[in-house]
Amino acid sequence: MTGGQPALVVEQLTKVFGERTAFSEISFEVGHGEIFGFLGPNGAGKTTTVRTLSTLIEPTSGTAIVAGMELRPENGVEIRQRIAVMPESPGLYLRLSVNENLQYFASLYGVTDATTKIASALESVNLGDRGLELCGGLSKGLRQRVALARTLLSDPTIMFLDEPTSGLDPVAALEVHNLILELRKRGVTIFLTTHRLEEAEKVCDRVAILNTTLRIVGKPKELREQLFEKQLVVRTVAPLSEPDKIFSAIHSVLQWRSSEPSSYVLTVSDVDVAAPEVSRSLISAGADILSVAEAQHSLEDVYLEIVDSGEKVGEP
Amino acid sequence: MMGLDGARVRAVARKDLQDFRRKRTIVLSMSLIPLTYLIVAMVLITVLSVTKNGSGPIPTVPLLYLLLNPVMMPAIVASYSVVGEREQGTLEPLLSTPLRQQELILGKAAAVMLPTIVLSYAVYALFLAFVALFAKSASASAVFHDGPALVSLVIFTPLLAGWSIAVGMAASVRANEARVAQQVATLSSFPAIAIVVFMMIGLIHPHFLVALEFAVGLALLDALILRLTIQMFNRERLIVGTVPTRKPGGGMMSSNP
């Protein structure tokens, strides 16, 4: 979090549809200017959470403060004035031009100097020269970018982006990532739901993993450290003749296993201490070392660990 | 009405009119329906004879027949207005803006009302021009001297259109599919059609007092249905297809600005 009053405070929020619970008792905070990733498998309740926080649907219980306003029906208009939502589907009027679509939404937000704002928003998504084209003639990726431009028109305090790079090619996705990072510099809070874990890892300050209940919230690095033991992966030219004798003699090595011939995974207390000790011991034992490296766990590993375990881990 | 932003109502109406102009099926249906009524009215005034004194129901028939036009023309378009946005996937981004439901409903109603009124009055003007130029003099004289029928055309056109639009929008707000909304809207225009038919066959005589009474009643009914439509509008049901769940304490979180 970047400090100061949080842009978004969610406490014990629950949404139930009949017999089905979309999400249950979720609590988290998002700071101003923070990019907050909201991850989870299909049906985990991510989109319902966004719809609830953007006042489209009513929570069953719990409270939230969105852009400084309490999430209550009577505050709906004011909250929606302060936020912008980009749903997964761009939702553009295909028979209208890009400019006409944006002009419509600028009017609904009461944007003054709409022409300049529209031009600026289109420039931000590299569509400066496509304003007169009908949206029906644009590719899915370009429509996605127009929808993103639409969220920029009202200078929102919080932007809810639901799968913003869905359907985009890698170059277009990179441009969206850069735009999101640029928005953070301007102080915009971004609430990003995504399936793309590398995307979350790349742009998000913190992530939350949801699977009906909130499983974990934290910075990707902290989550990795919290969930996974520190490990070294050692590879040698030939299999060690007495690996147990070598590794057991090193204090910083807690346990070891051979993952494949000539490859050993060591659980260590401290990587920075263990790596040189392991190297020295192997050389002393006459082993030819190919590599000694820290085991890298991606956000995907964290995600799979959390979703598979089904246990609530909490905030680090 | 509390908290109504005229600029947003105009924005919704302007966008819908832009969208209608580019949708061939809407342009066709909104052109063919009045054209068909105009042709039939022209045939009626040409083939039917007037009574000796030039009065009676005959000149009233084609005139009142034209009143079916503002009943039928807007029903389909109005019934598509909200559920159509839902089917196109444009409703969610729209409802995520500060737009209030009454602004959305009124803007969409205005977008249907405007072409209906313009086209209906244009049809009346063309019909009267045809009568003046081509109808038998007795028929023309009877038509132009039938004050109550002429006044009924002017007064009842926006009111009957208002009925069709209000009912069509109510169906659009409640239905899960555009097709269902269109069927409901078409069925619900029958009472309005019945009133017009009763006037045509002489069961209701459209003298000034009757016209005034019906006009006031219809205006109140239009306002009531429009108000009910706004109250029925529920963002959650339109987005996810379910109504809000009751809270354990018993309160229903249904308020929906």
Q: Quick one: CATH superfamily of the largest domain in chain A?
A: P-loop containing nucleotide triphosphate hydrolases
Q: Radius of gyration of chain A over alpha carbons?
A: 24 Å
Strand content of chain B: under 5%
Order of helices and strands of chain B: HHHHHHHHHHHH
Total number of domains of chain B: 1
Binned, the helix content of chain A reads: 25-40%
Ends apart, CA distance between termini of chain B: 12 Å
Structural class of chain A: alpha/beta
Spatial shape of chain A: elongated
CATH architecture of the largest domain in chain A: 3-Layer(aba) Sandwich
Task: Give the class of chain B from helix and strand content and strand pairing.
Answer: mainly alpha
The radius of gyration over CA of chain B amounts to 21 Å
Question: Which terms would index this structure?
Answer:
heterodimer; A: 316 residues; alpha/beta; Rossmann fold; Alpha-Beta Plaits; 2 domains; 6-stranded mixed sheet; 4-stranded antiparallel sheet; B: 257 residues; mainly alpha; 12 helices
Layout of strands and helices, then pairs:
The complex is a heterodimer of chains A (316) and B (257).
Chain A (H helix, E strand, L loop, with lengths): L7 E10 L2 E11 L4 E5 L6 H8 L7 E6 L2 E2 L5 H7 E4 L11 H11 L5 H11 L15 H13 L5 E5 L7 H16 L3 E5 L3 H7 L2 E6 L1 E6 L1 H8 L3 E6 L6 H6 L4 E8 L2 E6 L2 H14 L4 E6 L4 H11 L7
Chain B lengths: L5 H16 L2 H24 L12 H6 L2 H21 L2 H5 L5 H34 L2 H8 L2 H28 L3 H11 L1 H11 L7 H25 L2 H6 L17
Helix pairs in contact in B: 1-6, 2-4, 2-6, 4-6, 4-8, 4-9, 6-8, 6-11, 8-9, 8-11
How would you sum up this structure, described in words?
The complex is a heterodimer of chains A (316) and B (257). Chain A is an alpha/beta fold and 316 residues long. Chain A has helices spanning 46-53, 76-82, 98-108, 114-124, 140-152, 170-185, 197-203, 220-227, 243-248, 271-284, 299-309, and strands at residues 8-17, 20-30, 35-39, 61-66, 69-70, 83-86, 158-162, 189-193, 206-211, 213-218, 231-236, 253-260, 263-268, 289-294. Chain A has 2 domains: 8-225, P-loop containing nucleotide triphosphate hydrolases (Rossmann fold), CATH 3.40.50.300; 229-288, Alpha-Beta Plaits (2-Layer Sandwich). Chain A is 35% helix and 27% strand. In chain A, the strands form 3 sheets. In chain A, strands 6-7-8-3-9-10 form a 6-stranded mixed sheet, with helices on both faces. Chain A is elongated. Chain B has one domain (6-240). Chain B is built from 12 helices and no strands. Chain B has helices at 6-21, 24-47, 60-65, 68-88, 91-95, 101-134, 137-144, 147-174, 178-188, 190-200, 208-232, 235-240. Chain B is elongated. The relative contact order of chain B is 0.15. The chains are: A alpha/beta (316), B mainly alpha (257). Chain A binds chain B through residues 15-18, 48, 51, 54-61, 73-74, 76-78, 80-81, 83-87, 89-96, 100, 104-105, 107-110, 147, 150, and chain B through 3, 5, 7-8, 10-12, 14-15, 18-19, 22-23, 88-100, 235-236, 239-240, 242, 244-245, 247-248, 253-257.
